[in-house]
């Protein structure tokens, strides 16, 4: 048995009153756990097994499916649950992790980053900015950073343009630009902002101003990048977001 901090990514009904939850844990990465009786409102597991709840989970580990023994709630994130747009965004955040991570995959620093992000989401007002920063931070931690300092097609560091390719994962040079079929035009300021987000802390970035036009352009490209390289499929929860 292990005891670990964990965030509930998703919850699926099974049998009568039971659920299977996907967890992002601090010690074991992503885990699946069976929870007896969690759908009973009087169950001690009822609230702690809701998506984006954070707690200290005691788990019996098996090969494919852990079993929950005890849980102590750390954060229920009530301020998220009282705002429908934030519920949709938190759901998206959890789905992104669930699809991007393999069972048992542990990425150093990811748990702390996600725990901070959920707490920050309770207070944030600019949801599109928050989502884009979160996306880039998760991309960075998982090793899928966009290529910004050399051509993503040929590797050249010379004659770089400000065109970004989703397919190839970053900027292209002048020579490759003519052969790029999905390149989108950006400006140097856009690329500098993406690089700034990748290097600075979450808290610092949220205080930096950015125009809605610039943010929408970067967010649209980042959505496509994630679906092409990180999860390799459409994200269902992305359709619910109206930000």
The CATH homology group name of the largest domain = Recombination protein O, C-terminal domain
- Contiguous runs where pLDDT drops below 50 for at least 5 residues: none
How many strands appear in the DSSP assignment?
8
What does the main sheet amount to? 5 strands, mixed, barrel
Strand content: 15-25%
Element-by-element helix/strand order: EEEEEHHHHEEHEHHH
Q: Trace the largest sheet across and list its strands.
A: 1-2-3-5-4
CATH topology of the largest domain: de novo design (two linked rop proteins)
What is the radius of gyration? 20 Å
| Percent of residues in helices | 25-40%
What is the count of DSSP helices, taking H or I runs of 4+ residues? 8
CATH class type of the largest domain: Mainly Alpha
The CATH architecture of the largest domain is Up-down Bundle
Envelope shape: elongated
Give the termini separation. Answer: 42 Å
What count of domains describes the coordinates? 2
Secondary-structure-derived class: alpha+beta
Mean pLDDT: 94
